[in-house]
Design brief:
GO molecular function: ATP binding
InterPro entries: AAA+_ATPase, ABC_transporter-like_ATP-bd, ABC_transporter-like_CS, ABC_transpr_PhnC, MetN_ABC_transporter-like, P-loop_NTPase
Protein name: Phosphonate ABC transporter ATP-binding protein
Structural class: alpha/beta
Largest sheet: 6 strands, mixed
CATH class of one domain: Alpha Beta
Bound molecules: adenosine-5'-triphosphate
Strand content: 25-35%
Number of strands: 11
Pfam families: ABC_tran
Keywords: ATP-binding, Cell membrane, Membrane, Nucleotide-binding, Phosphonate transport, Translocase, Transport
Strand order of the largest sheet: 7-8-9-5-10-11
Amino acid sequence: MERRTEGNPISPLFELSQVSCQFGSLTALTAISLQIYPGERVALVGPSGAGKSTLLSLLNGSLVPSQGQVRIMGHNLAQMPLFKRRQVQRQIGTVYQQHHLISHLAVVHNVNAGHLGRWPLWKAVWSLVWPLQVEVATRALAQVGIADKLYARTDRLSGGQQQRVALARVLVQDPVAMLADEPIASVDPERSREVMDLLKHLCETTDKTLVVSLHDVNFALSHCDRLIGLRAGTLLFDCPVAEASDRLFQDLYALPTATS
Ligand SMILES: Nc1ncnc2c1ncn2[C@@H]1O[C@H](COP(=O)(O)OP(=O)(O)OP(=O)(O)O)[C@@H](O)[C@H]1O
C-alpha cells in the first residue's frame, strides 16, 4: 500500500514481495509481502520458530530469500555486487540478544566497532592502540546512559550495561533503521522495561525506524505502533497496535491441534 505525506509518495524502507525462505527441506517463511516505512516502530510477534529472526535477517541483508524479492531502501541486494551490498547493509543496525561484544576489550573499542564497515583496516587497527573518535563513542554512551564506562573492561559490566554498549555500537554506525532480535528475552521485567524504553527513546530522538521481535506482546503494544504476527512462517496479521485484539493473539499463539 503506497503512503503519502503532503501529497508526495513515501518510499518504503523495506519491501518484501512474495518472499519465501527455505533452509534445506524446512520452509521458514512462506510468501511474505509487506512494506515498512521510515519512522515506524514495528513489533514482530509470534510463537517460537514462527520466522521472526529469519525475517530480521532478510531486513538486514544477511540472508537472501529463496524466492521473491526483498528491497532495502529500494535496493535488491540479491542483484548487487558485494561492496555495494555492504554499503546498504551499513544503513541497517542490528542488536542481538547475545550482544556479540569482545569481552576483554575496553568499552570504547566495542563501541568503535560500529565504524568498522566504514573505516579502512589501518584505521581500525590503529584505533585498537589509540582509540579514535572518542567523542563520538562518548556521545553514544551518554545516549544509552553509561558515558562513565568508556574505558571500563567490557566483561566487568553487568548484562544490562553490556546491552547498552551493543546499542551504543549501533548508534555510532548511525543507521536509518534499528533491528532488535528479542532484546528482552531472558531478562527481568524491570530491565525489560528499561531496554524497551531506551530503544523507543533512541528511535524517536534520532529519527530511526525500529523493527523488534518480541515474545512479550504487552511490550509490543506499549512500545510499538504496528504489529506483524507470524505463525509457522506465514503472515497471520499486520495491523496498527490500536487494532490489536485478544482474539488475534489467541489465534497467533494457539497450540496446534492434532488435526491442524
Ligand atoms: N540457519 C538455519 N538453518 C536451518 N534452519 C533454520 C535456520 N534459521 C532458522 N531456521 C529454522 O527456521 C524456522 C524459523 O526460525 P526463526 O529463528 O526465524 O524463528 P523465530 O520466530 O525467531 O523463533 P524464536 O522466537 O524461537 O527465536 C525454525 O524452524 C528454525 O529452526
